[in-house]
Amino acid sequence: MNNRTPLMAGNWKMNLDHLEANHLVQGLAMALSDAGHDYSKCEVLVIPPFTDIRSVQTVVEADNLDIKYGAQDVSIHDNGAYTGEISTDMLTKLGCSYVVMGHSERREYHGESDELVGAKARKVLDAGMTPILCCGEALEIRKAGTHVDFVLGQIRAALAGWSAEDVAKIVIAYEPIWAIGTGETATAEDAQEVCGAIRAALREDFGDATADSTRILYGGSAKPANIKELMAQADIDGALVGGASLKADSFAEMARFYA
Ligand code: 13P
């Protein structure tokens, strides 16, 4: 037993307009409430596209929901001539509590480096929100058997120079690229192997208190059918869910993995 609150985070990616977003959040709140969800047993987070955040905020505030929301990316700049970017300040003003950085899709399509990802995490933490730092290996690396070293390298590069207190406040999401959107979930043992190695590295680099309190999520074709087994692993504290978070019922069922 540990005292890390499980986190079920739905990464909507580039899906759903602001009207559909309203509908999904309302449906999710309803499904959770009908099922008697206990938010102290699993925090529920939705991560919509930027254009949906204001609508999600309105629903959450109007109905006084316990659902949290956040953003899929953020700028490292405060403001100014950065066309297309969104600042931490804009996100905190909208009530966001989490921000994802270093998702494999951003690393691949937007060339984001570990250093940039680390700078984004720093920016988000300094703004009072919680960074969700993503890591994960491609299929070739998995096949070569060097996935643990690769993932630890990503995390260590992003968190170089960080204090133990700050690392304890972030969330790390391990998402093997070959399992994202492919329907091919890593087995619970595969996921635990890497999540366990991440926690061991945190222990080595930042000490027991940090290793014991940092939450580590698994992501990659997580769904109602496999969530219980994933959540039963010692070092998996939640999931970063893509496809299965776009349906209220399936995502609510995942948040209720403990039931
Ligand atoms: P899927 O759950 O659709 O595989 O996506 C995982 C993911 O990338 C979440 O960030």
Total number of helical segments? 12
Q: What is the H/E order?
A: EHEHEHEHHEHHHEHHEHEH
Helix content: 40-55%
In spatial order, strands of the major sheet run 1-2-3-4-5-6-7-8
Estimated radius of gyration: 17 Å
Main pleated-sheet profile:
8 strands, parallel, barrel
Give the helices and strands, then pairings.
Blueprint: E1 7-11, H1 18-34, E2 43-47, H2 53-62, E3 68-71, H3 88-93, E4 98-101, H4 104-110, H5 114-126, E5 130-135, H6 139-144, H7 147-158, H8 164-167, E6 171-174, H9 188-206, H10 208-213, E7 215-219, H11 224-231, E8 238-241, H12 248-255
Parallel strand pairs: 1-2, 1-8, 2-3, 3-4, 4-5, 5-6, 6-7, 7-8
Helix pairs in contact: 1-2, 1-12, 5-7, 7-9
